[in-house]
């Protein structure tokens, strides 16, 4: 039975093997109610396998997966009542009209006939399907097909949504529309969402889980993950100071001595009258100290521009180490 005091998702020491290949390796994490979580990883990292185990589509080799305190393996039907699932390939019945398909899904969900009409109407309204209810699913655009998939996932008003690449294959306008819908749904439901579009995670998710080679390698907010890699500052220093030409080696030594700077690299490109450098730093912003020390050396600071690291930078570091 659903236990409202338990985390919505509990994964404990989960493993899954296919022959000699281990797709998931002792994965452990929890998701409390009300979070929108981005589930990230390179292709083959184990994301879809983990999601399929959570939905009861696959059986784990060892470990456990629980939804609202219900063991998915021991009580699969009870667990599935609590979730809505949108697979990556979004399988639909193309020869059905949208209204027929949603009625069919309501029957499969064993929604009482007296409740079907208002629940279908609610899903249709939220997913923006009013104008296509009488059309065949096979005649819909990719964007509307995703909306139909989301409609069937929320039809029975589940507390948990599992979305596998919900914006895959959509054009930029459709991505914005589906992203807005997911953000709206996230105000009242727990969402576990896999995606390769990292800006989508930063705008939609309150937490990020990153897995690589079947193991969890990061668990934090998008903001904290980005700050782990600090940032970069682009600096251009004049080649001529008050006391004559400046040697590049002297600039390197000064920049490397600034507190918080972890690495100095000479930047590419031609700069009229200056040497360009990229400074890497951790959490402390070195710009005030940089300005003071360059001024104290009586050099001319022609340019100073900060570029924070992106979630993509962090993702690449964590999944390529």
Taking Cα atoms only, what radius of gyration do you get, to the nearest Å? Answer: 26 Å
Helix content: 25-40%
What is the terminal separation in angstroms? Answer: 42 Å
Question: What count of structural domains?
Answer: 2
CATH class membership of the largest domain: Alpha Beta
- SSE run: EEEHEEHEHHHEHEHEEHEEEHEEHEH
How many distinct helices?
11
Q: Uncertain spans, ≥5 residues at pLDDT below 50?
A: none
The biggest sheet amounts to: 6 strands, mixed
Count of beta strands: 16
Protein structure class: alpha/beta
Strand order of the largest sheet: 6-7-8-3-9-10
Shape: elongated
Mean pLDDT: 90
CATH superfamily of the largest domain: P-loop containing nucleotide triphosphate hydrolases
Would you give the CATH topology of the largest domain? Rossmann fold
Strand content: 25-35%
The CATH architecture name of the largest domain reads: 3-Layer(aba) Sandwich
């Amino acid at each position: 039975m659903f236990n409202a005091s338990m985390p919505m998702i509990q994964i404990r020491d989960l493993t899954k093997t296919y022959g000699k290949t281990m797709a998931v390796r002792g994965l452990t994490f929890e998701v409390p109610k009300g979070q929108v979580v981005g589930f990230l990883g390179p292709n083959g990292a184990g994301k879809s396998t983990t999601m399929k185990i959570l939905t009861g589509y696959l059986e784990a080799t060892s470990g456990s997966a629980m939804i609202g305190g219900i063991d998915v393996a021991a009580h699969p039907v009870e667990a599935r009542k609590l979730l809505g699932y949108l697979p990556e390939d979004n399988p639909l019945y193309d020869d059905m009209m949208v209204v027929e398909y949603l009625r069919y899904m309501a029957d499969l969900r064993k929604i009482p006939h007296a409740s079907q009409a208002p629940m279908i109407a609610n899903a249709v309204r939220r997913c923006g399907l009013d104008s296509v209810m009488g059309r065949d699913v096979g005649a819909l655009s990719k964007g509307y097909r995703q909306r139909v998939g989301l409609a069937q996932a929320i039809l029975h008003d589940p507390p948990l949504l599992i979305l596998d690449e919900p914006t895959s294959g959509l054009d930029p306008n459709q991505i914005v529309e589906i992203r807005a819908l997911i953000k709206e749904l996230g105000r009242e439901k727990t969402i576990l969402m896999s995606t390769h579009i990292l800006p989508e995670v930063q705008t939609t998710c309150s937490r990020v889980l990153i897995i690589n080679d079947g193991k969890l390698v990061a668990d934090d907010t998008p903001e904290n993950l980005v700050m782990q890699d600090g940032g970069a500052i682009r600096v251009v220093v004049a080649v001529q100071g008050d006391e004559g030409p400046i040697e590049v080696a002297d600039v390197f030594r000064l920049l490397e001595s600034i507190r918080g700077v972890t690495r100095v690299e000479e930047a590419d490109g031609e700069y009229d009258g200056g040497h360009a450098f990229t400074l890497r730093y951790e959490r402390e912003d070195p710009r005030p100290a940089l300005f003071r020390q360059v001024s104290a050396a009586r050099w001319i600071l022609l340019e100073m521009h900060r570029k924070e690291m992106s979630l993509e930078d962090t993702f690449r570091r964590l999944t390529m180490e």
